[in-house]
Amino acid sequence: MSTQTRAATRRGDVGAGILAVILGITSFHRSAEAQPPPEAPPAPPGETPTSAAPAGDASAAPAPAAEAQAGAPAPESAPGPGAASTAPPAEKEPWKKPISVAAWARVGGRLQNPGAREKMDRLLGDGELDLMVSGEINRFIGLQGAIVAQFGPTPTGGNITGSATIRDVIAKFQFHDLLNVWIGRMIVPSDRSAFSGPWSMGPWNYPGFFEPYAPPIGPRQGPFGRNDGVTTWGKAAGGLFKYYVGAFNLHDSSVSPLYTARLNLSLLDPEPAYYQKATYLGEKSILALGVAGEVQKEGSVESLPPPAAGEPAGIPRKDTYGEVNADLLFEKNVGAAGTITLEGAFYKYFGDFERFDYSYFALASYLTPSNVGVGKLQPLVRLQQAKPKNADAYTLIDAQMGYIIEGHAARVALGYQRSDLSGAKGNALFLGVQLQK
């Protein structure tokens, strides 16, 4: 056989091989297209604009096309040639949709003197802008990220430039309703208020902020209620029961991890997603009980006074930190009578060097059934107390009138706060506007 003939034969063999591969891929592609679409993942976490799912919402995603078809009766006969199909088009899988982008803003003012808190002779303003993205890579993997920017007064006075930082960076893995794993920077699953944040609760002020420019008194979390770690969570009965187990402080190798756990039972409407609200503004009937706890080895650290000039700093003693809490939310839309919301939470702290023994809050609010102008009125009152180990109790009382224009996506709050920090009195008037898109 000549060299040219052998070369032609080899080219023919290669061409036949390539044709076989192409035919195999085409056959596999057609086979894959013939399979029913996979189950869609749950809706993106609750922190999405109200037009999709309001802030902190735990609503589930729309039913995927495969589930809708499985639950629908079979047609009696196929339509004839040329007949128009009346079946709705199959919903596009969430992971094939563009990434979701949202922007949230809160701006407010406060009439109070930070240096003499009983006087209302200073007008202070602050604000926050959150930019968020989320999406699904496939039915098992999702992502979420957010950047937050703030401006307002600081302990040393303040500046007009403000600050910006990363709020969320989460890789999400869904193996089953009972097994989801989130890794990155996220909300610490500590109590309902943490899941809701200030965005999805009735009061304008987040609970636990007794002392100016200090972290809130409550479960340990981190800036904006976030921390770096991993959470395993799951749900049963569509979200009537949920569990969370997490490990945090993973950004700091010099300290032990902070371990957290939470159980949530919703006896009326379910709350299926990771996040939960502190009020659903009458969209759900809620009777939910949550219990949670935290523990950190050597997490309770002695606070030492600054050393004298020329003296070395002392070595603080350490003890195991622990915290347990329970929260209860009842919300009922009674039709023409409006919506009633009752909420309470109790926190107990452990550790030789913890400043506080316990804290709690209780809240009652009412939402009018119909609009007054362009929105509904929501009068609200909240009592908070925290008991230091070696001092009289801290007390905060908020009386607020909310104006709910478009759910959590557009609301206004006007209120008065009275504070008593172991005898140090304070008064403040506040006004806030919240917008989400």
UniProtKB/TrEMBL annotation:
* Bias (Pro residues) ranges: 35-47
Q: Where is the composition biased (Low complexity)?
A: 48-89
Output this protein's name: Secreted protein
Region Disordered, residue ranges: 29-96
List, alphabetically, the InterPro entries matched: Porin_dom_sf
